[in-house]
Design goal:
single chain; 193 residues; mainly alpha; two-stranded antiparallel sheet
């Protein structure tokens, strides 16, 4: 917890001390950028390890998380929605969904309102795997959320734009579920603490 506070504090301090472009390249703020990238690399490695322990690939975990954490709150998604959220082509998403369906991780259902639309849902078995992996990653996800907040403050103050336009912000949203769709066990585990 202290390391998280130190890193966030360091990033906020850096937002204040950033020189203007007219000061040349004497500024050595690369350390903070490198620290952020190192934190992302550690998070990625840890995600790989946790996914493997729970019988998922990192791509499967991300796909299941995106389906379950759909912004609509309905715990379903379409190829178009996934393509936009993961910044991948529709054909790439279709292939991932096909492999996940073959593995019994997602199921498809045609819309009753518009037969052209196909929704994808997480299967019960996949939900159990997702819940176990997500539970193991909760502390890591909170760290990345804190990093995103610090970067958002930096961008807002220094660059005049919101974190939604930043690459790190988009990366965090790929791994973080929509707040309305926290997994059901979150409530139980938070009350047990």
């Amino acid at each position: 917890m202290t390391a998280k506070r130190d890193l966030v504090g360091q990033m906020k301090a850096e937002a204040i001390d950033t020189p203007s472009a007219s000061q040349g390249d004497g500024w050595h703020g690369y350390e903070q950028a490198a620290a952020f990238r190192a934190a992302l690399a550690r998070f990625s490695r840890r995600t790989d390890e946790i996914c493997q322990r729970h019988g998922l690939t990192p791509d499967q975990y991300t796909l299941l998380l995106m389906v379950r954490g759909s912004p609509s709150g309905l715990e379903r998604t379409t190829v178009k929605e996934l393509s936009g959220r993961l910044q991948l082509s529709a054909s790439g998403i279709t292939e991932r969904l096909r492999r996940a369906e073959t593995a019994g991780l997602v199921r498809r259902e045609r819309s009753r309102d518009d037969r052209r639309v196909v929704y994808f849902y997480v299967t019960e078995r996949a939900n159990d795997l997702l819940l176990a992996a997500y539970t193991d990653m909760r502390a890591d996800i909170k760290l990345v959320q804190a990093l995103e907040e610090a970067l958002g403050a930096f961008e807002h103050e220094q660059l005049g734009r919101q974190s939604s336009s930043s690459l790190p912000g988009r990366m965090v949203r790929r791994i973080r579920p929509h707040p309305a769709n926290e997994l059901k066990s979150d409530v139980a585990s938070d009350t047990a603490d």
